Amino acid sequence: MKANSLFVLLGLCVPLCVGASQVDRKRSELDALKQRLQTLQQDFNATQAHRQEAADDLRESERAISSSVRQMRQLDGERERTAGELQGLREQADATSARVRQQQAHLAQALRGAYTRGQGEALKLILNGGDPNQTARDLRYLSRLSHAQQAMIDSLRADLAQLAHLEEEASQKNGELARLRAAHEAEQAKLLADKRAREAVLQKLSVKIQRQRREIATLRRDERSLTDLVERLNRLMAQQAAREAARARAAQQAQQKQESARGQSASARRPVAVNSETPVPFRSNQPFARLKGLLHLPVAGELMNRFGAPREGGGLNWKGLFIRAAQGTAVKAIAAGQVVFAEWLRGFGNLIIIDHGDGYMSLYSNNESLYKQVGDRVQGGDAIAAVGNSGGQPEPGLYFEMRHQSRPVNPLDWVK
């Protein structure tokens, strides 16, 4: 491309004595340039199609990761509940162990008494020739004592069996929880690896597309320049000196525009402000409109644009704020409301929208994962998502919008 551009500039500087042979040579070069441009345009279209496929694959990966993170949070809640159950089982086991020890002591005492009296106590009572009524009462006492000892032995066996059952149940719950946690961690690791691989493919295709766009733009510029040169050589040989000056001025202006664009791009990458405060949990019965000036932005980080300012590439203005933040940082709801959208959306990645009533909505996009689902009620300060770079965003952060009756409003007018 540099050689073609240099050739065009040199062509502008040909002497006034240029002839028909040079015009023919320029025409031949123009035909070759058009053929090259056509081939490059076809390659560019094919690359665009591949990039779309990679973006669709990345969308599925980000959806799966969001679902996996939500399942992990649910598993953590189950783990806390199971820990409480295990604590209850341990307390039951401790109580059973104490009861078993007490019964073992009573049984040992009864057995020692029986051993001291000897095994023929009932027979002695019958043969000693004493009072029959007293003998009958003594025999009933011995019978009751025997039944009580047998009942104590049966109770001891039942308590020992219950203790073994409780210990087995606690062991099974611990094992089940460990298996579930390991399986989810393995699945999440695989999903993250797939996402990184697809992001790498998408990045390579994006770089290739940018390079092809620059090359196509350069070729088209060279084609126009070369076409102008051929026409002017045929039509206005005498005015070639004036054309040289005009071309030089155009080249200088183009260079100045490029340098200005590079300067604007470098400036855009610098933050315009820094936010350090985030929503804290609160409840309010006031209408959302009365909270104006009392809210906080949903995540701490660097504000990379101003509301309403032109976006890079031209044609569109910023309708919200992009807040650059660390991957995985909690995104918090600015106020109470109901989740009306929680899904991946092209250009926005994992997007969640909260309806605050009276036509007011807040939008949180480019998230790594979504913690809430459609229909969930949230309060101000609730964690609803995690910062990411889904949807093809080159760096992690949160794109945040506020809307009233579908029209964007400046979020900075609503914060302290």
UniProtKB/TrEMBL annotation:
The lineage of its organism: Bacteria, Pseudomonadati, Pseudomonadota, Betaproteobacteria, Nitrosomonadales. This is Peptidoglycan DD-metalloendopeptidase family protein. The keyword Signal applies. Residues 50-63 have a biased composition (Basic and acidic residues). Gene3D superfamilies: 6.10.250.3150, Glucose Permease (Domain IIA) (2.70.70.10). Residues 318-411 form the M23ase beta-sheet core domain. CDD domains: M23_peptidase. Keywords: Signal. Residues 44-81, 246-280 are annotated as: Disordered. Residues 1-20 form the signal peptide. Residues 246-262 have a biased composition (Low complexity).
